[in-house]
Structure formats: C-alpha cells, structure tokens
Design a protein that fits this description.
- The complex is a heterodimer of chains A (433) and B (297).
- Chain A is of the alpha/beta class and 433 residues long.
- Chain A contains 16 helices and ten strands.
- In chain A, the strands form three sheets. Chain A has a five-stranded mixed beta sheet with strand order 2-1-3-10-4.
- The termini of chain A are far apart.
- Chain B has 297 residues and is an all-alpha fold.
- Chain B has one domain: Orthogonal Bundle (MetI-like fold).
- A two-stranded antiparallel sheet of chain B has the order 1-2.
- In chain B, helix 6 crosses helix 9.
- Chain B starts with a helix and ends with a helix.
- Classes of the chains: A alpha/beta (433), B mainly alpha (297).
- Chains A and B meet through helix 3, helix 4 and helix 15 of A and loops of B.
- Chain A: Pfam families: SBP_bac_1.
C-alpha cells in the first residue's frame, strides 16, 4: 500500500517534471520564419546568415525555412497570397522588375523597413534603395547588390586592332575603336566581328547608357519619361552603331547559350552589363580567361552624366503576415546591411554589395586571373560614387514588355525610326497611368 | 419521415445531383458570374474596384495588343486547319488500306506525342528549334540545302513554329478520330465504285471525304476552339510568352499577363469574355457553313 503510493508520487512527479520541461522549451523555442526566393544560392545565403544570427542572438533565435520556387510561379503565388491575406511567407525575395507592381497592389501587406534601414543609412549606397521605395520615402525592400554597370573589354581583340582600352574615355572614342575592331573576316562583304552586340529583346544596353544620363523609364513621381530627349539620344546612338557604322550586331538577349558561345568565340570585342555578368563570363566563357578587362563605362561626350549606374536586382521584403514582424525586420537588416553581410554577399554570392565599408575587407583585394589579374572589385568600389538613384512605378512590367517585345525589336531588328517608336510606346504607357 | 423523403420520386433525384450541382455552382457558375461582374470594373489588385460599365469592352476593341493577339490566333488556327486535317486524314486512309503492314506500330508512333505533357513538349521543341546552325531542326533542313532559320526569333517563323508543334502533337489524336470514322464506311461502297471504274483518288474524294464529313467538321471545330485558346506552347517557348515583336502573342497569353503581371483583373476578365464570344461566334458560323445544323433536322 505504502509502496504503491510512493510509486504514484514518483510517477506524478516525473510527469510534472516532464511537463515543466516542455513548457520551458516551448517558451524558448525559436521563432519560425518562412522565406521564399527564386534563387537557390540566395536560400543558402539566408540560411547561413540565420545560423550566424542565432549564434549572436541566442535569446532571439530563429528557424528559417527557405523555399525556392520558379521565378514566375513565386511572384504570382506571392501576389495572390498577399492579396488574399493568406499563406504569404514572413520574408520574401522580390525581383526588381516585379517589385513596383507587387508593392502597388499590396503596400499595406508589406512592411515599411525604414526603421531598421535608418541605422545603416550612412554605411550603404542609399541610391540603391530608390527602386524599392515609395515617393513618401518608405522603403519596402532591402537590395541584394548594386549591380554596378561595367564595360567588359576583350583586350586581345582590341589590341590586335591597335586599340588600347585605356584610351577609350567617351562613347565617341568607343565608336572610333569599334570602327577599327569591326571587320569582315570571311569576305562575304558583311561584318562578322563587332565591337558590341545590341540586344533587341532586352533593354540592358539602353538602360546602361540612358541611366548614365540620369534618364530611363520613370521620374521620381512615377511619370513615364520614356520619350525624353536623353533616351532618344541613347537609342539613336545605339542604332547608329548597328546601321550607320556597323560596329554592332543585333542579338536577342545576353542570357542564352548562343550568345555566350558567340562571346566565347570572340565575335564581340566588348559588352556592357552590371557587375553580376562577371559570373556569366567565368561560368560560360572559359576560353576568354585572361582576355577580359573590366572598366567603367565610357563617358558621354562633353562630360555629361556619370561613368556607371545600377542594373538588375532583388529586393527582400517582410510581410505583415510575419509571425514576428520586428524580429523579421531586424534579421533581414542583419543579413543584408551589416559589414559582415556585405562581405558575405561578395564572397558567397559573387555580388557587389551595397554596404560601402565591406569593400575595405581584404577579400575585395582579390586578383582575378580571368580578368587579367586585376583587382576588379576596387574598380567597382571607385564607381560607387557615380551611381544615381533610379525610380520605378507599377507600370514597370508593362513597360518592360513593351520595350522588349515591340519597341526595341522594331528599332534594332527592323531599323525602325527611334523617335516614332519610342513616342508611341510612351503614349501607350501614359494611357495606362 | 426521412425514409419518405428517400422514396419520394421528386426529391430523390435532387438529392443525388446535389453534390454535383454544388461543385458545379461553386467552381463553374460562380467564377463565370463573378468574372462578368469583374469585366465591368476597373480593378487594381483584388481589393479595389471601380465600376466602369462597358468601358473595358470598348477599350478591348481598340487595344492594339488585343487585335494583334486575335490576328495571331487566327493565323495559328488557319495553320492548324491546313495541317491537322489533311495530314491525319491521309495517314488514316493509308493505315486503313489492306496493303499496309504493321498498322498498330505506326498508329502507336503517331499517337505517342498526344500523350506527352505539353509543357515538356514545348521545352523540347525549344531545343530542337534552336536558331544556330547546330540546331537539330536546322541541321535537318540543312541536309536538304536550306540555310539555318531563326525559328523562335524571326517574327515570320514564330507562328509556324507553334503550328509545327501542334501538328506533331495532335496528328495522332485526329488520326484516331478519322480511323474510327473510316471503319464506319462500308467496304461495299468502295468495291462497287471500283467495279464502276473509279480510281483511288476518285474513291477518296467521292466516297471517303463526303462520308467522313461529320468527323471532319468535328475535328475542324476542335481546331478552331484550340486555335483561339492557344496558351501553353507560347508561354513555354518564349519565357512567359514574350515573343519577338509580339508575333506570337495570343489572347490567352495577353489575358494571363493582364491579370497576373499587370494586376488588372477587370480588364483581364473582359478579354476572357470577348475571347469566349469570338470562339462561340466563329464556331457557330463554321457549323452553319458546313451544314452541321441541317443534318440535325
């Protein structure tokens, strides 16, 4: 009898102790956060940053569940989740082209990140926040990289034509160099080696040059400025490169195997693209090792404009559905805006970070055998002061579709009139405003 | 009480069809009604709407993208009429001939493409139609002395490329329809025609084609509807349907983009309704011209 009551007490106390253990552990349980992205490497990056965060903040630890979805599917799914108020993740990567549209429809379901960004404002390239901000200075996305526009020269081809790349200072110099390097190699009367390839189904060449002039698609208030004089000038110059001077060839875009092969086979002596195109060179064009040099863009004649601009990007946002909005904001700022994050964005993702101090890390001193043993990241660091803000509106997707599928195609592929086509496109978009 | 209900001849059928009616109403009728409502509104996202009456409908007929899409659909539809009726019909007649050996093997080969996933088929054709000299289709046409073509890049070849895929994919299906139709034609007709001195071509044009008319009308109607609903191939071949010079922009792709890229659900619903209307009217015209309604009488 006595024994059995002891047993009972024992069993009971064991149950109570276990119960307490469970309560304690559930109190200190990590906050679960779901994150969506469309890039595998980004998911790995955030997982690593979450581990670092947990080591530094054991009392506010998080469990980050990343999910990688196909590009279009992820953005469509996000949009529906945000609009219905169900199923959105805590943190999400949104591609720059999709960002303004999603923000326009879901401003109240995304979180203004200004409060956490303010702490870092002096340490980052602030201009890069503009595409993810609203006119009232609320910031809804934290950029991943600068995407500094650069000129990639094939120094072998240019030297063979008697051109020194460091003599190319303006777009006029670039044209003269182009005339020397472009030639007919197989004797059929048409050039088959060119200074440049101009894409007719993506706007990257137009973007780089027009943004140098502080122009592009929209002004700060979101008005369409596509038919501005600077843009017309840019397109005319590019079209002249193709039709008048024949130093440029027309291709569909810069992101397909066909084009990588053409570059690799030295059909084009240069191309200008954001910093992240370095990875395309090293991954897809092995034969160009040692031949490519990275330089600032040529300046517009008469000293107008800047030597670089930004291109591409992904803004990471926090949704109102987050289980702990403040924690998500802080983690995101930690994962992208601290010096350590900036260094990791370079070392792990291969991007030029927006954290200015990160460039002083020794990993940025790296010499690249592929790029002629030069310290490429230092060239990029020097260009940061050249980068001006860029403004978008929710019409961006529509505008991109219009440019890529009709306007640029008409101008470059069919030799259509620049002013007429660009004005038509601008009017069509204004009608949607 | 409950038992009485189950034995009531008026009530029981309703009990049985209730689940169907419920699903049908929720998933078919309601979306149609709701999109009719949406088509009269200007929507920005899901939550804000503005009644605009028939403005979207007026807009759609002056929208250059929409008109271009209708024209592209029409070109595709005509193309499939040219390829997807004669080719399967000829195959069906050849396979129906008593001189043909290994019929089932040929039928299987022709039918297999129908079983493939459209998404995968389009992805494979994207590789086959690669525009460089090394492209597989370019290599094949090169054997016959043709220069490599920019299949998915030249605006003149985009719709033909999609027609090529459709022909590859649907020939087998139409072949089955025609073969089934052929089995219904009595051999005696052919025999008596032979005795009267009709040659093979005459027998084909005066016996086979007229007697297969209902099947041909059926296949043509499917082609017409499919032609105006074209989506997946275009969406897959040009990431998200971004074809050069909008040369392969179709109504369905435009609808998808308007709804999910530009977030204009109201206007997208209007496109959907106009699309359905176009298909309905053209189908009726086609059935009228081909005498489908007369035969019913």
């Amino acid at each position: 009898m006595f024994l059995s009551s002891i047993k009972k007490v024992l069993v009971l106390s064991v149950i109570i102790i276990f119960g307490m253990l469970f309560t304690v552990s559930s109190v200190s349980a990590q906050t679960e956060m779901d994150m969506w992205t469309f890039v595998n490497a980004h998911a790995e990056f955030y997982e690593m940053m979450a581990e670092n965060w947990n080591q530094e903040n054991p009392d506010r630890a998080i469990t980050l569940n990343t999910q990688v979805l196909p590009f279009n599917q992820m953005h469509d799914k996000l949009n529906i989740a945000l609009q219905t108020g169900m199923g959105a993740p805590d943190i999400v990567d949104i591609e720059i082209g999709k960002f303004p549209g999603i923000l326009e429809n879901n401003a109240e379901t995304l979180v203004d990140l200004s409060s956490v960004i303010d702490e870092y404002r002096d340490d980052i390239l602030e201009a890069r926040l503009a595409p993810y901000s609203t006119p009232d200075n609320k910031v809804y996305g934290i950029p991943t990289h600068v995407g500094t526009y650069l000129m990639y020269y094939n120094v072998d081809m240019l030297e063979e034509a008697g051109v020194s790349i460091d003599d190319i200072e303006t777009w006029d110099d670039y044209l003269e160099a182009g005339k020397k390097v472009s030639k007919d190699t197989d004797g059929d009367g048409e050039n088959d080696q060119f200074m440049l390839a101009v894409p007719s189904e993506e706007a990257s060449a137009f973007d780089g040059m027009s943004r140098q002039l502080g122009s592009n698609y929209f002004d700060q208030d979101g008005n369409v400025i596509l038919d501005r004089e600077e843009n017309i000038r840019t397109l005319k110059r590019l079209k002249d490169y193709v039709y008048k001077y024949e130093i440029a060839d027309v291709v569909t875009d810069y992101h397909e195997q066909n084009f990588y092969n053409a570059l690799n086979n030295e059909k084009y002596a240069s191309i200008f693209m954001p910093q992240w195109y370095m990875i395309r060179f090293t991954d897809f064009m092995p034969d160009l090792k040692g031949k490519i040099r990275v330089r600032p863009l040529p300046a517009w004649p008469n000293g107008e404009g800047t030597l670089s601009t930004m291109g591409g990007g992904t803004g990471t946002a926090v949704t109102q559905e987050a289980s702990d909005v403040e924690l998500a904001k802080e983690f995101l700022a930690y994962a992208k805006l601290t010096r350590e994050a900036g260094v990791k964005i370079w070392t792990d993702l291969g991007f030029d970070p927006i954290v200015t101090d990160a460039y002083n890390d020794e990993s940025f001193q790296e010499k690249f055998p592929y790029f002629g043993n030069e310290k490429v990241m230092l060239t990029i660091q020097d260009l940061q002061s050249e980068i001006q803000p860029l403004y978008f509106s929710d019409l961006l997707t529509r505008l991109r579709d219009q440019l890529n599928e009709e306007t640029l195609y008409e101008i470059f592929e069919n030799g259509g009139d620049v002013e007429k086509n660009i004005k038509e496109a601008a009017e069509k978009l204004r009608a949607e405003q | 009480m409950l038992k009485n209900l189950f034995y009531n001849k008026k009530v029981v059928p309703w009990i049985f069809i209730t689940p169907f009616l419920l699903f049908f109403t929720v998933f078919k009728v309601w979306p149609i009604v709701y999109s009719a409502y949406l088509s009269l509104h200007e929507m920005s996202g899901l939550n804000t709407s503005n009644f605009v009456g028939l403005q979207n409908y007026f807009e759609v007929f002056s929208d250059s993208d929409f008109l271009k899409a209708v024209w592209n659909n029409t070109k595709y539809m005509i193309g499939t009429m040219i390829t997807l009726i004669p080719i399967p019909l000829i195959f069906a007649v050849l396979l129906d001939s008593k001189h043909c050996k290994g019929k089932n093997i040929y039928k299987a080969i022709l039918f297999i493409p129908t079983l493939t996933s459209l998404v995968i088929a389009a992805a494979v054709f994207k590789i086959l139609l690669y525009e460089g000299e090394a492209g597989i289709i370019n290599t094949i046409i090169g054997l016959f002395g043709f220069s490599p073509q920019k299949w998915l890049i030249s605006p003149y070849l985009t719709i033909p490329s999609v027609i090529l895929i459709a022909t590859w994919r649907w020939t087998g299906m139409n072949l089955i329809y025609f073969t089934t139709g052929l089995t219904g034609i009595s051999q005696e007709l052919y025999e008596s025609a032979s005795i009267d001195g009709a040659n093979m071509l005459q027998r084909f044009f005066y016996i086979t084609v007229p007697l297969l008319k209902p099947i041909i009308i059926f296949v043509a109607t499917l082609n017409l509807i499919g032609g105006y609903k074209l989506f997946t191939e275009v969406f897959m071949l040009w990431d998200g349907g971004a074809s050069p010079g909008k040369s392969a922009l179709t109504m369905a792709v435009l609808l998808y983009r308007t709804a999910f890229s530009y977030f204009e659900l109201g206007y997208a619903s209007t496109i959907g309704f106009v699309m359905a209307l176009i298909i309905l009217i053209l189908s009726l015209i086609q059935l009228k011209i081909t005498g489908f309604f007369n035969e019913e009488e």
